[in-house]
Amino acid sequence: MTRTVRHLAEQLVGIRSGTVDAGMVGSVRVSVQGNSLPINRLASVSGRADQLLIRPFDPAVVPAVVKALNEARISAYAMDKTTIRVTVPPISGEQKQEVCRHVRSLGDQAKVAVRMIRQDARKQIAARGRGSERAVQEATDAAVAEIDRLIAAKVAEIGG
């Protein structure tokens, strides 16, 4: 259940909230020398006003980073041989509603996954004849509460 909650938190970091955040590009993976690595392992990412500046540690990977960002539908271009700029236009009210709807849907999917884990645990307890269904329910309640907290925080951040 904790892995499900952690996965949801990782997904939410990559969702744009209308403000510039380094987590926005953190989930984008870049293909370098046959390996697929997240941007935050290849470069430093900093936010400034309505844009992100990405400075790869190795200038040779700048074209690969730009390509990966553009494939992820993130507007990026190389300013020079060592810096990449990602522009972030403000999102409209309709887009905010759509993002909030998507965030809530991710939360619902995570809750379903937690409940499926609970169901499997109950079956194992019944098959073995030992274990505590109460502990399983408490873990489920804690995971669902954490999912609700994450979703509420993200929706508040988006402003929807």
Shape: elongated
Q: How many separate helices?
A: 6
Q: Tell me which CATH architecture of the largest domain applies here.
A: Orthogonal Bundle
Q: What is the helix content?
A: 55-70%
Order of helices and strands: HHEEHEEHEEHH
Structural class, from secondary structure content?
alpha+beta
- Rg (CA only): 20 Å
Overall CATH class of the largest domain: Mainly Alpha
- Gap from first CA to last CA: 27 Å
> Order of strands across the biggest sheet?
3-4-6-5
Percent of residues in beta strands: 15-25%
Would you tell me the overall average pLDDT?
Answer: 85
Overall structural domain count:
2
The fourth-level CATH homologous superfamily of the largest domain is: Ribosome-recycling factor
Largest sheet: 4 strands, antiparallel
Look up the CATH topology of the largest domain: Topoisomerase I, Chain A, domain 4
**Low-pLDDT residue spans:** none
β-strand number: 6
Q: Could you outline the blueprint of secondary structure elements for this entry?
A:
Blueprint: H1 2-13, H2 23-26, E1 29-32, E2 35-38, H3 39-42, E3 43-48, E4 51-56, H4 62-71, E5 76-78, E6 84-87, H5 93-128, H6 133-158
